[in-house]
Design goal:
The chain is an alpha/beta fold. Helix content is 48%, strand content 15%. The longest helix is centred in the C-terminal third of the chain and has 24 residues.
């Protein structure tokens, strides 16, 4: 059974979906005012590991990721670029979809946009006003946190300490400095929608509540997002949704750890800010996925160029073996009785709170064993076909760290075999200097030759 660490209860719990065999999952998506950065990419990829593993287990997943397409940042970008806010939102929404395809992130069931859900948002705010959880001040509607007794249960924040610290925007219209905006009165030159409180637009938090409940129901299985969203965004979502609907909001809350750059927080002012597009110009998407998979989703991660290069080298070991198996095992059928232990260990790791580092370790143990087998025999067998299937299902289908098959992959094997043949001919001619040179140069690039009684085999390390 899958165990997930639930931020709401602060413990690891067995995952029991509301409906057997089905999972309803909501993940906070981007605010589409710019290209998303590699910290966002980490959250999106970690959510994809969860999504893919559920599908691997045969579960039907309804996966929702929202797009915030009206926001202060979008309006600011609109003014800077001299384009309408909707044009800015479309430009960066399109870029978002393009980039997540490159990252091999499975598409969501629905990508709801805030501007397409104004009726749902306004209806939820009306309900909160009617129930006394919200108040209108001349066209600005605020949520009254004093009316919700569970406020702070997700983040563990003490409201009295927060008020004393005054860490939120000061607004004289609010009853309490922690009260937050549900509806913002329109300012001159800003986009607006008609509402019972006049012209305006929604606050950020209410958008996610309205869209998640619209597409997943008043209570659903999993809500996920970056750790930076726990407070105030996710805390406010719970307060709004449970006050409006009178039911628990999400049963499990998953949060993805922070990403630092060279041990510092990523920021444009420090010059260490990287978009996903920046990284994908230098590294394959599979390398970025591999790098993120090496650390548990909830743990902080330090991003360095050296670590990414090391991840690229590690990933290529899986790639090289897989492409070789594709060639060697193409005429063999897999035997489902083989690799049972490896599958069990992989699933044990993933069942333990989606522990991708342990799952990767299982794959690498299998890679070593398969390479050892190939050193002894590389004839097409059920073992090789089963090995290929195991790597495809785990490194390919779940972790998606396998690169795309290339023509060069088969060419690589042929070139290695050619060098082995040239070395054998050199040995027959007693040209041991050339024979040793071929062996040593191949070793330098990770190809280890093993001389047997009748033939020379190789493995890639």
């Amino acid at each position: 059974m899958i165990q997930l660490y639930n931020t709401l209860t602060r413990r690891k719990e067995p995952f029991n979906p509301l409906e057997k065999g089905k999972v309803k999952m909501y993940v906070c998506g981007p605010t589409v005012y710019d290209f998303f950065h590699i910290g966002n990419a980490r959250s999106f990829i970690n959510a994809d590991f969860v999504h893919r593993y559920f599908r691997y287990l045969g579960l039907e997943v309804k996966f929702i990721m929202n797009l915030t397409d009206v926001d202060d940042k979008i309006i600011k970008k609109s003014n800077e670029e001299g384009a309408g806010f909707s044009a800015i939102a479309k430009k960066y929404s399109d870029a978002f979809h393009e980039d997540i395809r490159k990252l091999k992130i499975l598409p969501a069931t629905i990508y709801p946009a805030a501007t397409a859900h104004m009726a749902d948002i306004i209806a939820m705010i009306e309900k909160l006003v009617e129930k006394g959880f919200a108040y209108n001040v001349e066209g600005n509607v605020f949520y009254d946190i004093s009316k919700f007794t569970g406020y702070g249960k997700l983040s563990g924040k003490n409201t009295e300490e927060l008020e004393a610290g005054s860490r939120v925007e000061v607004n004289s219209e609010k009853k309490n400095p922690l009260d937050f905006s549900l509806w913002k009165k329109a300012k001159e030159g800003e986009p607006y929608w008609e509402s019972p409180w006049g012209k305006g637009r929604p606050g950020w938090h209410i958008e996610c509540s309205a869209m998640s409940c619209k597409h997943l129901g008043k209570t659903f299985d999993i809500h996920a997002g970056g750790s930076d969203l726990i407070f105030p965004h996710h805390e406010n979502e719970i307060a709004q949704s449970e006050a409006a609907n009178g039911k628990p909001f999400a049963n499990y809350w998953l949060h993805f750890g922070f990403l630092n750059i060279d041990s510092e927080k990523m920021s444009k002012s420090l010059g260490n800010f990287f978009t996903t597009r920046d990284i994908l110009q230098k590294f394959q998407a599979e390398t970025l996925r591999f790098f993120y998979a090496q650390t548990h989703y909830a743990s902080p991660l330090n991003f360095t160029a050296e670590a990414l290069e090391a991840a690229d080298s590690g990933r290529l070991k899986i790639d090289n073996l897989f492409f070789r198996l594709e060639e060697l095992a193409k005429d063999a059928l897999p035997d489902d009785s083989l690799f049972r232990e490896e599958y069990a260990r992989f699933e044990e790791a993933m069942n333990d709170d989606i522990n991708t580092p342990k799952a990767l370790a299982v794959v690498f143990d299998a890679v070593k064993d398969i390479n050892r087998h190939l050193a002894e025999s590389n004839t097409a067998t059920a073992y090789l076909a089963s090995a290929k299937k195991f790597i495809q299902h785990t490194a390919g289908d779940v972790l998606a760290v396998l690169g795309e098959a290339k023509k060069e992959a088969g060419l690589e094997s042929k070139l290695i075999e050619l060098l082995i043949q040239l070395r054998l001919e050199a040995r027959k001619e007693k040209n041991f200097a050339l024979s040793d040179k071929i062996r040593d140069r191949l070793k330098e690039i990770g190809v280890i030759l093993e001389d047997g009684k009748d033939k020379t085999s190789y493995k890639i390390v």
